[in-house]
Amino acid sequence: MDLGQLEAFVEVAQHQSFSKAAEALFLTQPSVTARIQSLERELGEPLFERDGRGVRLTDVGSSFLPYAQRVLKDLQEGRDALEGLRSLQIGVLRLGSAFTVSTYVLPKILKAYHERFPAVEISVKTGRSEEVLHLVLADEVQAGLVRAVVHPDVETVQLYEDEVVLVTNSQHPFAASGEARLEDVGRQPLILFDKGSSYHDLVQGLFRQAGVVPWTAMELDSMEATKKMVEEGLGIAMLPRVSVEREVKLGVLAEIKLRDAENPRRRIALIYRRNRRPSRTTGAFLNILHEIYGFEWPASMGQPAPTVPH
What we know:
The protein is α/β, with parallel strands linked by helices. It is built from 13 helices and twelve strands. The strands form three sheets. Strands 3, 4, 5, 6, 7, 10, 11 and 12 form an eight-stranded mixed beta sheet that branches. Helix 6 crosses helix 13. 30% of the residues are buried.
C-alpha cells in the first residue's frame, strides 16, 4: 500500500468519479483506475461499486475512508511541520547561559532573535560555566554561553572579551580623578563577588600578581547586591563592564582606571556538542551572534545562512 493509492482512493470517494479524481490528481483516468484496483487487491475487498451513474463506496470502502483520510492529513501536517522548521516558523531554542551573560548580554541577543523568529519557543537555563557545560554534554540544552572552556566533546566559538573594571560610587575620592594605583585600591574596603566565581579568581589574581594584599570588606553571591553596596558607599568593587554600564552612564557609579595595571579579562564563548550538526534554531542563533561579534565562522557549521526567514 502506498500514498498514491490512498490519494486516488480519497479523491474518487470525494468526487464519486474516476475522471474527476484523475483531473484533481493530474493523472490519466487509467492510472487512477490502476491504483484503485491495486489497493483493492491488497485489501482483498472491493472499495467501490460501479454503475451507469458513476461510483459509490461499498461498506468496506466507507469504513476504510476515514483511516485513509487520517493518513493523508497526518502526512500533510508532517510536511507543514518540516516546512515550518525550514523557515523557523516553529521550533525550540534551548540555551544554557552563565549568570552574568544571561542577565546583561543575552536579553539584547534574544530580542534580535525573537524579532526575526517570533514563533520559535526559547528556553534558557542558567548556572556557572561548568554547570552549563554539563547541560550541553547531557543534551539538556542545544548550546551554551559561558566563559571559554576547553573540552574534547564541545566546539567553542569565541565571542568577545569580558572586561572587569573598578567601580566606586560617585562621591568616592577616586571618582574625582577617575583613576587610581592598584596599591591604593588595595587599601580601600573591597567588595568581592562570589568566591566560587571566576570573577573572584580574576580579581584576586590581579592583586596577587602585583604583590598587593587587598582589604576584603565583604563577599556577596549577587552581582546586583554588590553594585548596591558600592552605591551606598560600603566599599568599592571590580565587576564585569557589562554589568555596570547602565549605572556608570547614569552617574550612580564611577568607573576608575587603574594607572599601573591592566583590567582583567576573560573570554566569553558559545559552546555546542562536537560532531553534531546544530539544529536550525541553533544555527540561526549562531548567525545572529556572528552578525553581532563578527567571529571566525566555525568550519563544522559550513557557511553562514541568511538570518531572515524565507
